[in-house]
Amino acid sequence: MKEIILAKYGEIALKGLNKRNFESILMKNIKSSLREYGDFEFSNAQSTVYIVPKSEEIDLAEVSDSVGKIFGIASYCRACVCEKDFNDISEKSVEYLRNILESAGSFRVTAKRADKSFCMKSPEICTEMGGVILEKFPHLSVNLKNPEVTVTVEIRDTNAYVHAENIKGAGGLPVGSGGKALLLLSGGIDSPVAGCMMAKRGVRITAVHYVSPPYTSDRARLKVEELCQKMTDYCGYIDFYCVPFTKIQEAIKDNCPERFFTVIMRRIMMIIAQKIAERSLSKALITGESMGQVASQTLEAIVCTDSVCKIPVLRPCIAMDKSEIVELARKYGTFDISIQPYEDCCTVFTPKHPTVKPSLSDVEDAQGQFDFSTLVQEAVENTECKTFRPCE
Ligand code: ATP
Ligand code: MG
């Protein structure tokens, strides 16, 4: 029996004049996400993308999982392909839906007739099909208002399709429809989630990571690269920049008052990030900060980091509890990598008593005791870039 996947888009369907643009980005993303599984034919009509495998070898269960990770798709299902002939439709449906119908208590049938020349009208299809199903599965009852299973019959140009499941998609908007932003990606739980949340709203993610060898190990960097690779399941390709940060951290340690180490370090991270953003054509920065989580994430500390930023800093986790962030980290598949215990440069030279409520002028004075511009320049010049792609 031939099977395809129908993917319905949600919010894009509401876009007016821009709809075409969103649609074409979504199609491109679907194609690149599914390339690894084989050849498909794609078409779209009425806010639905038809994903038709060209060979029987293709594992639709895997494809279906992958479709569930594409932002811009509100719901999707696998469907059985039938000839445009009621006998064929009813025979195949009974076979195709056997497991679902056997374990259900109630059902209803809906019909969509895009091909108005089909010999039966929608209500007639529903009645006849309902009759066939009741005959084969006499334990079922019809429930029009709140059925356990809705059997949908679609009559389209070349074929008819039958399906009964409806799986919730990743939602949001297609990645790339909302410009590009640079994610400050640590090895922690929060920043990968922040990146995925912004990707959900259509933002293409570029990532920057700061390393301080030998205080941070190669293994710690590899962990972040692994996170970045994992994020491509949802975010698509990610350009990843790795910044050598050791000399800057040592200079902070040697020249600035200890209680301001963290906030000065974060300001310099932001200064470098903006230079990388310019280079990568990113319009904003993204961090995984959550209000009050640690000393550097109080409102006062955020005032100090933001004051060096000329582009917007997006903080999608800012109002989330840790447990809510963890839930999303599990959903996006990053949690298990994030909890591997490797050091981050943020934990190098951590002051024993960091200032929880730093004043901006004190921080500026403290940072002013050393001219970081040459070191910043050098760090940016020695930044390495590589690209992570889905399915590598
Ligand atoms: P996360 O779980 O994302 O590591 P966190 O709660 O540990 O966050 P911090 O260590 O204070 O918080 O870092 C705050 C934010 O700064 C992170 O969410 C991330 O965006 C950025 N950040 C921290 N360390 C690095 C790093 N080594 N490279 C790039 N960005 C970093
Ligand atoms: Mg961290």
Descriptive overview:
The chain is of the alpha/beta class. It has two domains: 3-168, 2-Layer Sandwich (VC0802-like); 180-388, HUPs (Rossmann fold), CATH 3.40.50. It has 14 helices and 15 strands. The strands form two sheets. Strands 1, 2, 3, 4, 5, 6, 7, 8 and 9 form a nine-stranded mixed beta sheet that branches. The chain has a six-stranded mixed beta sheet with strand order 14-13-10-11-12-15, with helices on both faces. Helix 6 packs parallel to helix 7, helix 9 (261-279) crosses helix 10 and helix 9 packs across helix 14 (373-381). The mean pLDDT is 93.
Descriptors:
392 residues, alpha/beta, VC0802-like, Rossmann fold, nine-stranded mixed β-sheet, six-stranded mixed β-sheet, 14 helices, 15 strands, 21% strand, elongated, binds adenosine-5'-triphosphate, binds magnesium ion
Present the secondary structure layout.
Blueprint: E1 3-9, H1 19-34, E2 40-45, E3 48-53, H2 60-67, E4 73-82, H3 86-96, H4 98-102, E5 106-113, H5 122-136, E6 141-142, E7 149-155, E8 160-163, E9 167-168, E10 180-184, H6 190-200, E11 204-211, H7 218-235, E12 238-244, H8 246-255, H9 261-279, E13 284-286, H10 299-306, E14 313-314, H11 322-331, H12 335-338, H13 360-367, H14 373-381, E15 384-388
Parallel strand pairs: 5-6, 5-7, 10-11, 10-13, 11-12, 13-14
Antiparallel strand pairs: 1-3, 1-4, 2-3, 4-8, 4-9, 7-8, 12-15
Helix pairs in contact: 6-7, 8-9, 9-10, 9-14
The site of magnesium ion has 4 residues, from loops.
